[in-house]
């Protein structure tokens, strides 16, 4: 019985090793590094650059739109909160009892 699970474990390792390209050790690692580098430069980097270019184009289009709304007035602070009305300047919101 002990040899049965060892044989199945060996089969699993064999299938996994063959799925990884049949290479072992340093050559396996080197092949994965090469494949990962190629994938990065052929797929990942171009898609990131395309996305960045699209964002830049959208930002330029938004900046050149003459009809866009731009807030030109500072918001008016609440006079009660700032202490201008009724001398609330040094009081806290939740007084300690």
From TrEMBL:
<protein>
    <submittedName>
        <fullName>Uncharacterized protein</fullName>
    </submittedName>
</protein>
<feature type="transmembrane region" description="Helical">
    <location>
        <begin position="25"/>
        <end position="44"/>
    </location>
</feature>
<keyword id="KW-1133">Transmembrane helix</keyword>
<keyword id="KW-0472">Membrane</keyword>
<keyword id="KW-0812">Transmembrane</keyword>
